[in-house]
Every structure is written in C-alpha cells, then in structure tokens.
Design a protein that fits this description.
With 92 residues, the protein is α/β, with parallel strands linked by helices. It has one domain. The protein has two helices and five strands; from the N terminus they run ββββαβα. The protein has helices at 58-68, 85-91, and strands at 2-5, 16-19, 28-29, 44-50, 69-78. A five-stranded parallel sheet has the order 3-2-1-4-5, with helices on one face.
Length: 92
Amino acid sequence: MKINLWCWYKTFDWYINVDCITWKNVDKIMDLDKYPWDFENNCAEEIYCDNILEHLDFSKSTKEIHRILKKWWIAIIKVPYFSNLNLIRTIK
C-alpha cells in the first residue's frame, strides 16, 4: 500500500489519497490532527507527504508515519524552506 497524506488536488492513481475534505479522487477522508491515524501498523510500503508536516504536530505525525510504514520502506517528505536570508529577516 502507498499513502499520499493530505493530497488536496495532487492525487495519484497508485496511492491511497488521504485528505480531511472531499476532493476529486480522494480515497480516504481523515483528520490528520487526530491520533492515532486510521491505518494498521506496518501497512505502507511508501508514504508521500507534500507540505503537510508544518501544519501538524511534528512529533506525533512523524511517530505515526514511523508506525504505519513497513520496516526498510520509504517516506517521501517535502517541506517548505527559505533560501533567501533577507526574506527570513522580513518575516520575523
């Protein structure tokens, strides 16, 4: 099983696409702020997270990813970053 967490509009045919609301091609509606997530232990060969972890409790969500991911399989995690130091200073 491959899981695409909080997919929004970016769904994949070969994944279970998870989101908190109904979108086109969402397979499972789930609130990712409620733990534990509705997945069996060690059920996923791959977990895809695209710009989601910064919206969740980091400690709890990474523990859940670890719990549902099979040993020696893959978690693809994308997070936002700033490469321009001047931009970081203006945000603060």
